[in-house]
Structures are given as structure tokens and as C-alpha cells.
UniProtKB/TrEMBL annotation:
Pfam family, one: DUF4956
Assigned keywords, A-Z: Membrane, Transmembrane, Transmembrane helix
Origin species: Cryomorpha ignava
Xref: InterPro entries: DUF4956 (IPR032531)
Ribosomal protein found in the keyword field: no
Listed transmembrane segments: 60-79, 88-106, 112-129, 141-158
The organism's place on the tree of life at top rank: Bacteria
Name of the protein in question: DUF4956 domain-containing protein
Length: 247
């Protein structure tokens, strides 16, 4: 109970700190008072509702196309081909698109200030996903998605240079995740009842029994926990292939 109270207190303190930093960042972006007064005098209702489209240039749309093509190649033809999961498709693409748009607005003359960006990040900090923990591999794909959004939006190089950088990242991801260098490895946690096979000298028999019963290409087994009261053990099995089947 004490630990839960401490965690709640830490979250509240963190939220307050983020809000304070946001306020400081927003205040730091405000122009001087005399500039504000002059702008107020010279402004009209038409100026208030004016909408600038300077950011939506040909360069913006070409960069967006490069970004989306990179994401399609990464998620559809690398991630989905290997793991056959669609759970994080929306997360990957929307994070990428949001980062791309925010970074583009920050580096343009659209009036989107750093203070506003701090405000968005403060909102993100107060929200959290109420789902299961994301795996390290899925988190890596999320970071790659964010990287694509940043590279294509703020890189000062040409379109060809941006496409080349993204292609290098995609090629490395394909070589590491694909079957060209080595087969992908997966992990499952199972509860096993033949406790006599978990002895160090019975490793081969244990793997063969698990292969026969699961149909997976298991090559390594790690004993996590042993329950002598129920004569069971919790095993972490390492296998290759996609859903237990090699490509």
C-alpha cells in the first residue's frame, strides 16, 4: 500500500513539473509587452481569423510522400511479413504522422511556437496507454517510425538525400529482421508438468518433448521458476520461424 501511495505521489509531482516547464516554455515564447500592444492596436477581426498556408508547399507534400512510403515499407513489408501482427499499425503510423507534422510546423513560419510544442508534450505526458506493456522489439519499430518523421521533416538535404537515408535504415532493418543474415527468434513462456526433464542432463529430451508437443522449432529452453508443490515448472522457450512455421 505504501508503495502504491509513493507511485501516485511521484506521478503527481512529475505532472506538476511538466506543467511548470510547459508554462515557462510558453512564457518564454511570448513577445515583449510593447510588441503585443502594437499588435493589438493594429489587429482586426480579419487578422484574427486569418489562416496561413505557407507550410503546405510542394516540398511539404513530397516529404510526406517519402515519409509514408518509408513507413509502408517498414511496417507492411518488414514488420508484418515477419510477425504478422496488426495491433500496432495505428500507433506506428499516427506517431510518425504527428511527429512529422509537429516538426514541420516548428521549423516553418507557421506561427507554431516551441511553447505550443511543450504544451502538446505535456498532454502526452499526462496521458498513458492503458494496455499491456509493449515489447522491446515493438518499441524499436515505434522509435524507427518517429525517426522517419523527424528525418523527413527537418532534414535540410534534398529529397534524394532524405530518401537515401530512409533507404539505409530500411535496408538494415530488413537484413537484421529478415532471413538473410539469420532466422528471427521468438520467445514464449509455458508451464511444464514433466518436472523430471528439467534436470541439467535432460536438456535434449526436454527440447525434443517440447518440440513434439508444441510443433515449434525450439532450440533453447530456460527454466524460470519451479513449483515443487504442484510438480510444475515455468519455462521460457526460444524458437525460430513465424508462428512456429519457418518461411
Amino acid at each position: 500500500m505504501k508503495k502504491i501511495i509513493e507511485m501516485v505521489a511521484i506521478k503527481k509531482v512529475t505532472t506538476v513539473i511538466v506543467l511548470l516547464l510547459t508554462a515557462i516554455g510558453a512564457i518564454g515564447q511570448l513577445p515583449p509587452v510593447d510588441v503585443l500592444q502594437e499588435a493589438t492596436i493594429n489587429s482586426t477581426s480579419t487578422d484574427f481569423f486569418a489562416f496561413r498556408l505557407d507550410v503546405f508547399t510542394l516540398d511539404f507534400f513530397v516529404r510526406m510522400v517519402i515519409d509514408l512510403l518509408s513507413m509502408i515499407l517498414l511496417i507492411r513489408f518488414i514488420y508484418y511479413r515477419i510477425y504478422a501482427q496488426r495491433d500496432y499499425f495505428f500507433t506506428f503510423f499516427m506517431f510518425n504522422l504527428l511527429i512529422f507534422i509537429i516538426a514541420t510546423l516548428l521549423t516553418s513560419n507557421s506561427g507554431f511556437s516551441i511553447g505550443a510544442a511543450f504544451g502538446l508534450f505535456a498532454i502526452f505526458a499526462m496521458l498513458r496507454y492503458r494496455t499491456e506493456d509493449i515489447s522491446a522489439r515493438d518499441m524499436t519499430y515505434l522509435f524507427i517510425s518517429i525517426t522517419f518523421g523527424l528525418i523527413t521533416s527537418i532534414n535540410m538535404g534534398t529529397w534524394i538525400e532524405i530518401a537515401l537515408i530512409n533507404s539505409i535504415i530500411l535496408l538494415l532493418a530488413f537484413l537484421i529482421e529478415g532471413n538473410l543474415l539469420f532466422k528471427p527468434e521468438f520467445v514464449k513462456v509455458v508451464e511444464y508438468e514433466k518436472i523430471e526433464l528439467i534436470k541439467p542432463g535432460s536438456n535434449i529430451e526436454l527440447i525434443n518433448d517440447l518440440k513434439q508437443r508444441t510443433g515449434l522449432d525450439i532450440h533453447k529452453v530456460y527454466v524460470k521458476r519451479i513449483d515443487f508443490l504442484r510438480d510444475t515448472a515455468v519455462l521460457k522457450i526460444y524458437y525460430r520461424g513465424i508462428d512456429g512455421k519457418d518461411k
